Amino acid sequence: MDIADRRTGTSDIWLFELSRGVSTRLHFDSVDEVLPVWSPDGSKLIYRSDRQGAPDIYEMAIGVPGSEKPLLREPGVQQAEDVSRDGRFLVYLNEMQTTVWAIWLLPLQGDRKLLPWLRTRFNLASPRFSPDGRWIAYESDESGVPEIYMALTEGGREKRRISPAGGRRPRWRRDGKELYYIAPGGLLMALPVTLGPPLEVGAPVPLLRGEPEIENYDVARDGSRFLTTTSVDKVRESPLRVIVNWAAQPAMSDKR
User: Fold this and answer.
1) What is the tens place of the pLDDT at every residue in 130-155?
2) Dihedral-angle region of residue 177 (phi above 0 means left; psi in -120 to 50 means alpha; beta otherwise)
3) Which tens digits make up the pLDDT trace of 150-176?
4) How many Å apart are CA 60 and CA 43, to the nearest integer?
5) Which ranges of 72-136 would DSSP assign to H, the alpha helix?
6) Domain total of the chain
7) Does 139 fall in a domain?
8) What's residue 9's pLDDT?
9) How many CB atoms lie under 10 A from the CB of residue 194?
């Protein structure tokens, strides 16, 4: 995840090991490194950095200091979103002179010719590959409000709107049998999916409502746990206290 440094005003990427409760800061530069995306095998991170001007896409190997290198440098703003499970494609957002984002594909093998996947006059966001790689779920406001759509990865054909009443930030369960999204009001929904062919989509089922409202989230491989970010009114004070000149303090008696 990326965390903003209050002293510098920039954000850096951190790695958290949930099993051990250990955190590691991966960047220390006075530029923004944000929005990390895992490679399918977990050996690399792909992320957005503005170290050479307008934000571009970089990659780094986990545990290999100095391995950072640009993966894609193009005019405008580039933002990595997801990598297909077979490691063949990166789907990313591109913003040019307008404030509207387009969805592009970057082949990670071969000649790496950029492929425009979906360009419209509407705002597009959060493209995510289905586990089998045949579909991309994404967010679009072409109906007037953000909704979740799905289209074939090859050519963007057979587009289908799958959220009935608004939706943001689609995320797949790793077996492809459920797609999650945030409905209006911050309600996290689960949508039964059969990837087919043919594609079959069931009725969405409410899972949980974040208090405060969920802003972003991810889901464990089996769908059993969710990791969410929410807004807080204020940052709690650190439980750590530093006492200087402690040797001059009077000794404390044991009152047990």
Assistant:
1) 999 999 999 999 999 999 999 999 87
2) alpha
3) 999 987 667 899 999 999 999 999 999
4) 9
5) none
6) 1
7) no
8) 84
9) 12
Local structure of 246: helix, strand or coil: helix
Question: CA 221, CA 230: separation in Å to the nearest integer?
Answer: 21
For residue 50, tell me if it sits in a domain: yes
- Domain span holding position 63: 1-119
DSSP 206-239: EEEE-SS-EEEEEE-TTSS-EEEEE--SSPPPPS
State pTM to two decimals.
Answer: 0.85
Is 179 domain-assigned?
A: no
Q: Sign of dihedral through CA atoms 38, 214, 105, 172?
A: positive
pLDDT tens digit sequence for 109-126: 888 899 999 988 899 999
Q: What is the CATH number of the domain that holds 47?
A: 2.120.10.30
38 lies in some domain: yes
Residue 252, pLDDT above cutoff 70: no
The rounded Cα 45 to chain-centroid distance in angstroms is 12
